[in-house]
Design a protein that fits this description.
The complex is a heterodimer. Chain A is mostly helical. Chain A contains 4 helices and 2 strands. Chain A is extended and about 70 Å long. In chain B, helix 1 crosses helix 3. The chains are: A mainly alpha, B mainly alpha.
Chain lengths: ~150, ~120
């Protein structure tokens, strides 16, 4: 069942001479897989906001001394924190895959004389940077690099 | 307030875009080690010890890089989160409340960013 959309959606800045029908939102929109994926992408905002605040807490604990850091480590071992971090990792991978697919398409055709590399090359460069930075951080924080 | 938000839109978009790109690049490494492997005991015992990590941030050269990465890892996801959550709430029918919700979300991101600067400076 179609529903009326926002009355000003896609309205021209000045009324045209041709009369047009008011915009209508398709009734199937809220259950469309594409729209649900888009909503899920937006919803990752809550996950990013929370993980930013948790990382802030970790940095603060690190600056507060060994006791505060040990307390935080013990709290991070709580299954709720582990589940939150696992969910956040899944959300970050979802955002990365979706955003890196979009990123090459959003580049300008040229900036002055410079043209961006072809889309597949740019896509591959993003993935290489993502994997490289992740491997580097894991190696440093994980103690593989002393 | 709506006028101010429109004026700040380019800055918010810059921080939001940074949050998606830089946050997504940095977060998996942090989450895999500090969030998962460390608490689950998959790392060497002293990998995430305070002495080792504090030694890294106190290093004359690497310490500055470590602090900048940590600041980006905390502050930029906050802006991505605030902006995306704002648009999620608008999409869920909260457009009428956006004038109150948006400043609140951006205030959380701004306050978190300032606290992040303080946190990396006091390391």
């Amino acid at each position: 069942m179609a529903q009326p959309a926002h009355p000003h959606a896609m309205a021209p800045s000045r009324p045209g001479r041709t009369r047009t029908a008011p915009p209508m939102k398709p009734g199937t929109w809220p259950t469309s897989p594409r729209y649900l994926t888009y909503l899920a992408f937006d919803f990752t905002g809550l996950v990013y906001l929370l993980v930013g605040l948790v990382a802030l807490r970790a940095a603060w604990a690190l600056g507060s001394g060994p006791e505060a850091w040990a307390r935080l480590q013990a709290q991070f071992a709580n299954p709720l924190y582990v589940a939150f971090h696992a969910l956040t990792l899944a959300a970050v991978i979802f955002v990365g895959v979706r955003f890196f697919r979009l990123f090459p398409k959003a580049q300008p055709a040229r900036i002055g004389p410079a043209k961006p590399p072809p889309r597949p090359v740019l896509h591959a460069m993003l993935y290489a940077a993502w994997i490289g930075i992740t491997a580097g951080l894991v190696a440093v924080l994980g103690g593989i690099i002393p | 307030m709506k006028h101010l938000l429109l004026k700040l839109e380019p800055i918010i978009w810059l921080l939001f875009g940074g949050g998606i790109l830089v946050g997504t690049l940095l977060l998996p490494g942090y989450l895999l080690t500090v969030g998962l492997a460390g608490p689950l005991g998959w790392l060497p015992e002293d990998a995430l010890s305070w002495e080792r990590l504090h030694g890294m941030v106190s290093h004359p050269i690497g310490g500055l890089l470590f602090r900048v990465v940590l600041l980006a890892l905390i502050a930029l996801p906050l802006w991505k989160g605030a902006h995306h959550l704002r648009h999620f709430l608008i999409d869920m029918g909260g457009g009428a409340r956006d004038a109150a919700v948006a400043p609140l979300l951006y205030l959380v991101a701004a306050a978190g960013s300032l606290a992040a600067i303080a946190a990396v400076v006091r390391l």
